[in-house]
Design goal:
It is a single chain. With 329 residues, the chain is α+β, with helices and mostly antiparallel strands. The protein has helices spanning 2-20, 31-53, 58-76, 82-98, 103-130, 138-142, 147-151, 174-180, 191-207, 227-232, 292-323, and strands at residues 135-136, 157-166, 240-241, 244-249, 253-259, 264-274, 277-287. It has a seven-stranded antiparallel sheet. Strand 4 and strand 5 (253-259) form a beta hairpin. It is globular. The two termini are 45 Å apart. Residues 1-6 and 19-30 have low confidence and may be disordered.
Length: 329
């Protein structure tokens, strides 16, 4: 009976995903992807149950690797379905626990395996799905005629991400990119990103890193704006948006800053017309505020560069294509 209930628990989320699929915003994704995921999930459940019924413990490890690979594939694809597959993976975990696979230590080792498999599979599939041209060089960005290049000349340019926004017609602005994201912000369009952002915000609240006391108004770059910059900005410089404050908002360029215990960071978005549509640059500048800045950036950069920003790039590109142009993927 326990095995039957475990198999049902692992299968139910998969069936729910199949039922939910026609109404999904990601319905443009080929159905064979879902079929493959369902097959892997069912095989994973059977492997775990087989491991309990036999002495072939490698079957259990294979099940966890398969489950991790499944989650990694879904992370690189239509993450709107990821909660269903996460539920399935938890059902596999229950099956593994029932199988008596080494107690708590064995369970933790298997969680490490599933995380590693998901991460590797995501990192492998992402370039295949999106292409490798999602980051720009500092030279390319500094060659653009942008106010940020002069205003932030004394701040290190940490990295630059590129959004390829195909189609859209003439005279699109940065406001149009937000219009394409009217349903949800990019950090909520991808489950992995949403979880990581929620974790970071929770850590910030508990540690006090993001307290308002860390924002030094005198050090804000708003004070470096000229009268012409202020009159050109469509939003009042210094306007607060949670952790971020607007420095300026032009028609096709905007700059916001964030100052907390970890760093004084700036985020510049710029929209540039190109032959097949538009190219949006998202540059991140990081200014050191204490010894914590390089340590903090070193810790979060692997997640930012492999998971968070690539997922945001793809989410924005897909939202743009649905609203303004032909889907680039």
């Amino acid at each position: 009976m326990t095995r039957v209930l475990t198999l049902i628990g692992a299968s139910a989320p998969i069936l729910a995903a199949v039922i939910y699929w026609p109404a999904s915003p990601a319905s443009a994704t080929p159905r064979p992807l879902l079929a493959d995921a369902a097959i892997i999930a069912f095989l994973g459940a059977l492997l775990v149950l087989g491991a309990k019924a036999s002495r072939w413990k490698w079957l259990s490890w294979a099940a966890w690797v398969a489950c991790g690979g499944l989650l990694g594939a879904m992370a690189a694809g239509p993450l709107i379905l990821a909660p269903w597959f996460l539920a399935a993976s938890m059902a596999f975990a229950v099956a593994a626990m029932i199988g008596g696979l080494g107690g708590l230590g064995g369970i933790l080792r298997r969680f490490a395996v599933i995380f590693t498999a998901a991460f590797i599979n995501f990192a492998f599939l992402w370039p295949l799905l999106t292409g490798n041209h999602i980051r720009a060089t500092p030279a390319e960005f500094r060659a653009l005629d942008l106010r940020a290049n002069a205003l932030l000349s004394d701040v290190p340019l940490h990295d630059i991400w590129v959004f390829h926004l195909r189609g859209g017609g003439d005279e699109r602005t940065l406001a149009d990119t937000w219009a394409a994201l009217s349903d949800r912000p990019p950090t909520e369009m991808n489950t992995t990103v949403a979880w990581l952002v929620a974790l970071r915000m929770a850590i910030g609240r508990l540690s006090g890193w993001d307290d308002d006391k860390h924002f030094d108004a005198a050090a804000s770059y708003v004070h470096r704006l000229t009268d012409a910059d202020r009159s050109r900005s469509s939003e009042e410089p210094g306007t607060s948006h949670g952790l971020f404050r607007t420095v300026y908002t032009f028609q096709n360029e905007e700059l916001v800053e964030m100052m907390n215990r970890t760093a004084h960071a700036f985020f510049c978005r710029a929209l540039v017309p190109v032959e097949d549509g538009y190219r949006m640059y998202w540059a991140i500048y990081v200014k050191r505020t204490s010894w914590l800045t390089p340590v903090y950036m070193a810790l979060i950069d692997p997640f930012r560069r492999v998971l968070v920003y690539p997922a945001i790039v793809r989410s924005v590109e897909r939202a743009w294509s649905r609203r303004w142009g032909k889907d680039p993927h």
